[in-house]
Amino acid sequence: MATELALTGSAPIGDERDIVQARAVVRTLTAQLKFSLVEQTKMITAASELARNTMVYGGGGEMRWEILAEGARRGLRLHFEDHGPGIPDVEQALVDGWTTGNGLGMGLSGTRRLVNEFEIRTQVGEGTCVSITRWK
Amino acid sequence: MERIPILRMGRHLLVTIQIDMQDQTALQLQEDLATMVEKTGAHGVLIDVSALEMVDSFIGRMLVSISDISRILGATTVVVGIRPAVAITLVELGLSLGGVKTALNVERGMAMLDAARVA
Amino acid sequence: MRTENQRLADLLRADHENILRGWTVEYHNYAEGRGLTQNVAAEQTAILQGLEAGLRGDGDAGNFNTGPWGTLRDTLAHLSRNRAAQGETADVTSGFVLALKRPIFDALQRQASGVEGQIDVIWTTSAIVDRMAQWTISTYQKTREEIIVRQQHELMELSTPVIKLWDGVLAVPVIGTLDSSRAQMVMESLLERLVETGSELAIIDITGVPTVDTLVAQHLMKTVTAIRLMGADSIISGIRPQIAQTIVHLGIDLQGIVTKSTLADALAAAMRMTGHTVSRNGN
Fold first, then answer.
1. Across all residues in chain B, what is the average pLDDT?
2. CATH says C163-273 is which class?
3. pLDDT value at position C249?
4. What is the DSSP letter of C198?
5. Hey, is the C-beta of C142 within 8 angstroms of any chain A C-beta?
6. Number of CB atoms found within 10 A of residue B92's CB
């Protein structure tokens, strides 16, 4: 495992081993940025959810990260991108999830609560990119 | 792929999850536990997650499934050792693990299982 | 290298002692005893060195944030951080830097090698020392802000202690407004202590919380849910009649959370819930 990761990078998300790897990468990055334990856990969990979505719904893709610096503020931004079918109704996807009871939704609404910034760009037939940011 | 070992302690089964699990590993554990509960006629299942730094929706659903399946097979399940940061994250995610009994540590968990046995 | 930079750099080197002395006098005149006196000479020397290095690197006031001014910037930042931490005022700290202008002008006059080029050097001096003062002040401000943030954090921690009432029961008396960051802190420290002490019950007393709106109620619910998730129980006490009315009025569902109006009632309930009975010694 690298002792310190670069400011930007990417990791492929193909199979479930990559989800474990993605979590490990985010763990290293958040520790590097000296996030609190709770902040680290939230970001790693969010990454796990989104990486799984990329694999399950997007047919695979990649996770890209950026370490942000805005004045004295430091942050971590993660992008989860796939070239899968895209999400036809984003509004619905943001509402659906565990609340519908069957527990099979994408859980985007829950994931959104774990981060400071949440952005989703999607196009039917082209793919999806979910970007999340946590500031220290 | 690693397989989580299941230990037998009297009429209880004890599982300690110490690795960052792949999805398949979790599903395998679910299956193995169901088989073991049935085979041993266990009354209780104790799952120790105190080593887990993260519990996401997949693992959460696994825990709920294990609890439900074990109950049908006649055993009570207790999950012990959820870390504060994990608990806070699960609440924020909106996963309350409804129906899953929890305890602070192995000691209390075993006490719960023993008490449940009487019922 | 620009001529005025060359002239100024050479001047700083040639008339070093006089400039230092003049600077000290000017500074003490301005500060009138309000300034810090330790290490001043060392700071001044370091600043003059950094200034000379920047000039020889052909820096100008317009590009103070880059290039050859690095060492000078670091020296000034170090100085202002120290001064800010020790409570020196902003005007005295910047006054220290600005007091450098006068001795340099005096040194130029002593040199008096002709009026041409004099204006350029004076202008360069003024512009650069102004930038130095601005830089010093912005670092000073940042340090003060950091101190304030740290103090706020410490205050938050001090104001919500987690108390162990007896074996297995913790209590958190919350006093003051419960905003997001505070609620987060209370939740985190309470959960940590639950694990540390192996307690089964937490009493969250909100007698000292003036208002409870939907947001505060949400925070409390999250805390109670997290405690339940970990396998412990909680009681919320200190709910005044007005707060009870607000809760009903806002339609907040307490979802089976045990609540008590007074801490005393909560203690009694905690006793029962943990299997204790209290009896008075007969007399």
1. 93
2. alpha beta
3. 83
4. T
5. yes
6. 22
For testing the chain A interface, which of B93, B96, B97, B100 should be mutated: the one with the most A CBs within 10 Å?
B93
Closest CA to B116 of B82, B81, B67, B83: B67
Q: Which residues of C30-60 are buried (b: 16+ CB within 10 A; e: fewer)?
A: bbeeebbeeebeebbebbbbbbbbbbbeebb
Phi, psi (degrees; rounded to nearest 5) at B4: -75, 125
The strand order across the sheet containing C169-175 reads C163-166, C169-175, C201-208, C233-237, C258-260
Q: Domains of chain C: which residue ranges?
A: 3-154, 163-273
Q: Which domains does chain A have, with CATH numbers?
A: 8-135 (3.30.565.10)
Binding-face residues of C in 200-259 toward B, CB within 8 A: 200, 222, 225-232
Extract the tokens encoding C75: 């020296």
pLDDT given for residue B70 in this prediction = 95
Q: Which residues numbered 96-115 in B keep a CB inside 8 Å of some CB on C?
A: 96-97, 101-105, 107-109
Checking if the pLDDT of C36 tops 50, the result is: yes
pLDDT band at C191 (very low <50, low <70, confident <90, very high): very high
pLDDT of residue C283: 58
What is the CATH number that goes with domain C3-154?
1.10.490.130
Residue with tokens 């100008």: C60
Q: For residue C93, what are the contacts with CB-CB under 8 A and spacing of at least 6?
A: C79, C80, C83, C84, C136, C137, C140
Interface test mutation site (partner B, options A41, A94, A108, A132, max chain B beta carbons within 10 A): A41
Q: Please, what are the domains in chain B?
A: 6-118 (3.30.750.24)
Q: Is the pTM for the entire model greater than 0.80?
A: no
Strand partners, C236: C204, C259
